[in-house]
Amino acid sequence: MAPQPSAPPADRSARRPAAPPLDRRRAWLVTAMIVTFMVINFADKSVLGLAAVPIMDELHISNSTYGLISSSFYLLFSLSGLVVGFFSSRISSRTMLFVMALLWAVAQLPVLAVAAVPTLIAGRVLLGVAEGPAASMSMHALYKWFPPERRGLPSALQIGGAALGTLVSAPVLTWLITDFGWRSAYAVLAVVSLLWALVWRRTGHDGPYDETRPPRAADPRAVDPRPVEHLPYRRLLLTGTTVGSIAGAFGAAWALALAHAWLPAYLRTQLGLGPQTVATAISGISALSLVLLLTVSPLMDALKARGVSSRWSSGAAQGASVCVAGCAMAAFPFTDGDVVRLLLIGVAFGTVAVAIPLHYVTVAEVVPTAQRGAVFGIVAATGTLPGLIAPFVTGHLIDAADTASFGYTTAFLLAAAVMLPAGASAIAAIRPERDARRLGLLRPATDSKKGAHA
User: What CATH superfamily classification does 24-206+233-444 receive?
Assistant: First the structure.
């Protein structure tokens, strides 16, 4: 039997500062800015897919070439997220997000100067570099403004900004592309990114929750008041919770990559929908994601408040959302009737959004605060690798198939084959309380019982 850790010296725990007060007004102002940041982020990601058909027609490029352009966004995406994550403890979140938004604006410019495959790739690669750390670092910045037990709703709103970005940008960007040409959409996004950067420079600040909050004495799962040492990253990354969260995010990211790169083109070329109808369908899928995000994450917080373990309140929900989406992904290519098919498409591409905020919430429970930004960067980098693979593979499958319809069907079945085991792995492996206790981040229940009898 492993020896139980000894109780901390009384004078050490007495010297620990009290939990910082929550500045609600500033916290929610920062949340609003970060939600807007994510709206712009996903508008930038969506513009190429929404403009896919006119770009392919004008530049006379094949499905494989378009898939290569789309995948180029992720060429340095993961590496960028990884590198920036390790610098997150040295550079303020205010500065990091400011620089990212400026680079988003710059990334839209090459294609405005010369519309060609090389400039499209150059712009997408630069955009990927600037957006690789966006989700993880904006979540890290958000966590600095809220204590652990109040992060569910802000996390959902942050990821909800992604769904809101697609919900808003789909009709607006489609209108710009249809009425003013696809280049106009790139120009508008450059201006919007620049404006956000300037506003954030004046209003964005780092929050007070950079240190682990002192525990409630009655909570057997409370954080141990002793300072937590720097833990080896190998230990943090090989816990079942981290591995399971990465698996769930990998499956979700495969569906999201297909949604951004190929779903608009599929709806237009295979289902015969017009540009505005496609925009409406994309907005409907994003609306479903937003409703789920704003419903599921607060529900998870409520379950935790009632004593339900994180394994079931967030881990199982993360994996189940990917499994449900994978089943719908496998079913809709074989479904007759446009209404039923569109509903299944909504489930396949909309449900996976739930996995992303829960992915960060569960990982945060098994990582010391000082190492959270770096670990967020690592798990985001590995969890988003499908973006580098899925768009290009899909384009190749479409070009290699006898018909485009058969190519799309093969691509969607491949996505389901990735998503189902990924979701199942998340359900089986995510156990935050167990892993945090093994890492020494939670006080064992026996300690609490001894204290109660003392």
Answer: MFS general substrate transporter like domains (1.20.1250.20)
